[in-house]
Protein: CHAD domain containing protein
Organism: Paracoccus denitrificans
Amino acid sequence: MPQQETIVSAPELTLDITPEAAEILRASDLLSGRPRTMPVHATYFDTPAQDLAAAGFTLSLTKTGGETGDQRLQTVKATGSTADLFLLPEWRQTLTGDRPVLDDHTPVPALLGAKIADIGPLFELRVMRHVWTLPGQGAGIELALDQGEVTAADRRAMRCAIRLALRDGPPAALYALARRLDEIAPLRLAAQTEAEHGFRLLGPVLHMHKAAPVALRRDMVAADGFRLIGSACLRQFRLNEPLIGPGNPEAVHQARVALRRLRSAFAICKPMLQDEEAGRLNRESRWLAGMLGEARDLDVLRMRCRSEALRARLEPARMAAYAQAQAALESRRARLLMLDLGEYLAISPWTALPSAAEIRDLPLREFAAAALDRFRRKVKKDGIDLADLGDEARHELRKDAKKLRYAAEFFAPLFAEKRRRRRAARFLAALEALQDRMGALNDLVSAPELVERLGLAGDPKAAALLGTKRDKRAQIEAAAEAHDAFVDAKRFWR
């Protein structure tokens, strides 16, 4: 009979590292001891339609070689909304064969029913694993370095990652060690698990990652909602970060969207975030978004150019902007920001403060309704007589409309009744139309300064990028009409 156990994983932190950085780390004094080394071969199973993954679970069979011979471990792991941000429930059992044992000791039969007969292997992970046990101040941490590849059908991807598993001590020790490791060799907060690497190999090649719906539930409290929302934004940024380059303009756009959504989450949840760290993380996120901004602005300007000659004149500045963006992303400042954000969301030190405890414990749906009301009132009030506002006031209105739109997208799953879903769709459509009109107006307003800075003001072909007073009036009128339609849209949360 297989030996079975249901466990809750110890706190873990996974970090991406390049093979070159891994060799630097292995040669350091920190990892001076002799590691335990073993080949690892993991096979992931699911139905062809990936029904188990859709339910929020993975099923793997891992064969590990070592001094004691091969061992086979079956693991069913809860992921996504079915698990906590930091502790993943698992069902483990040792096996003797190469096929999973799918009995009632795991949730798989209840999840799949008759579809369980369709389960088969989908992809494989083959790595060499090196394991060190690192004693620390009040903490014992196991460091595992995996180097190898994930394969699915005829596609493959390199796998080089570090997993830090806490054996004893406070979870913050994981992040303290990660920062210490980064002083020796650059590493980054991982955005994907090894299972997600495999599933992505089965799908189309993605050149950018849009924001995914956040799996909020009505039984959550406000603090739970902020953690999930923030984690989703952080994940979207990290998924897009490695894709950023001048040949892929959508990746930098989506990375900036992720940072804007994250900063909006901090603004939406400000009443419950009473610590200084929240403000610092918000400012650092704004810095990073700003470092990517020039590349995005030049991408937009380039798309508006009808003249190939003018596009050619833009290209040196655009390449320089992407070089600046890449340098910022590769900086220790940006790497530490990702670790700091990960720690802030996963460990949530702000929840221990007595201030705002009552707000943090509010039912999430109640907190969401109040937040949506607050931001809607501001957008409604500040857009009155929009045609008479100055450029700066209209810019602030545009930013507030973005925050409201992100809040509505975040919280819409909490209001899933049929009538509310229809209202949410209409409300978001009206808000998106307002945001688009305000964005087009902002492009007209900011274009002269950008064209001047690029030294293109004297180029006759650049005149088309500037628009005319008539164009601006038309955009203002369209924005005012969109604001009126937004005001008329019914609230889906009341």
